[in-house]
Amino acid sequence: QVQLVESGGGLVQAGESLRLSCAASGLTFSRYLMGWFRQAPGKEREFVATITRSGVGKYYADSVKGRFTISRDNAKNTVYLQMNSLKPEDTAVYSCASSKSNWAIMGAEYDYWGQGTQVTVSS
Fold it and tell me: Which of 31, 35, 56, 60 has the most C-beta neighbours closer than 10 Å?
């Protein structure tokens, strides 16, 4: 079975940083596009970032561009999201997901999802 397990969430103050990790198993990790999404209470799930199979191609939502960095280590079957200069509006449950597509920024294009990790940014 495919499993994606996020970790690294927590409570931080505005301006601080967090690094999220997503460990994958049950799939050939290097063959999948990976992405991060987030969902705040009462709001729709939104795209955050995606990274290609090789790790060369990256794309970010405008709201996080310049502050967040997505990366992957195919040898460790892990994708990361480095979040700097966090803002209260970044508060959400962050989930990682895998896709068989070559490029995807919509949730429907992703096949497997992790359970999510809570990120809370206080003001």
Answer: 35
